[in-house]
Amino acid sequence: MTIQTDAAINHGNSGGPAFMDNKVVGVAFQGYKNTGYIIPTPVVKHFISGVEENDQFPGFCSLGILCQHMQNARMRNYFKMTSKMIGILIKRINPSSSSYGILKKDDVLLSIDGVSIGNDETVVFRKTESINFSHLVSMKKPCETTTLKVLRDGKTHEFNINITPVEPLIQVCQFDKLPSYYVFAGLVFLPSTPQPGTIPKKAGEQIVLLSQVLEDETTVGYTFLNNSRVKKVNGVQVENLKHLRQLIEKCCTGDLRIDLENDNTIIIGYKSGKRATPKILKRYGIPSTMSKDLQSL
């Protein structure tokens, strides 16, 4: 989504035009020491057209797959690629993607819309340049048909997929949207921050973080557990932030148990925690126990 440049990009330059040969080639994005990054013009145009057509940006399309390079001759032979074939091995498919149920693990992706994919995941871009194959997909409009050529068990297949954006496992920070959150008895829960290479095991899965423990009688001894991943609530695996809210609010036992990463555990009296929540919200100036996207449950 970005281009690296040696042009100096300083504080305050972000959002300004980047020129090359008297032509605007992108928008200044960020810079560090002698390295700068710009968002190229095609990406900017794609974003603007998406907003104009949908009143909001629908996101960049993705196949939702993780792949492995096929530069090793022995590996290509194992997956029955001929000497003239090039492509990449599919390791995992995001269950939230339009590829799920069509592509399979150990398929070899050979081409997208007739454009061959190199053994290193690149496709030809302009005359002597190459770019990651994901660029071809990300520039498509949601539900646009994409033709994939795949090698499966030594036989080639073609699949037409209506490509769509994919919901990330870990929520990405968006400056024009308020974050999702849920507060119970001084425990502040958020979707986690982005990490590379994360794909959910099933649709709707989300990593939930105990972002902060607000000081109160109900949270004594738990403040060191800030920024811990939530695993279970009362023995039930947490699927996403909405599911966590449901598990907490439907608690029918005297004690609420929350299991975190590194085998840490929180025990809070459910009724006392529920009574304490409004007082904690008022004390810390929090307007609601949850963000608007959770209130519709």
From TrEMBL:
InterPro entries: DEGP_PDZ, DEGP_PDZ_sf, PDZ_sf, Peptidase_S1_PA, Peptidase_S1_PA_chymotrypsin, Trypsin_dom. It comes from the Eukaryota. The keyword Phosphoprotein does not apply. One of its GO terms (molecular function) is serine-type endopeptidase activity. Keywords: Hydrolase, Protease, Serine protease. Residues 2-36 form the Peptidase S1 domain. GO terms for biological process: proteolysis. Residues 200-293 form the Protease Do-like PDZ domain. SUPFAM superfamilies: PDZ domain-like, Trypsin-like serine proteases. This is Protease Do-like PDZ domain-containing protein.
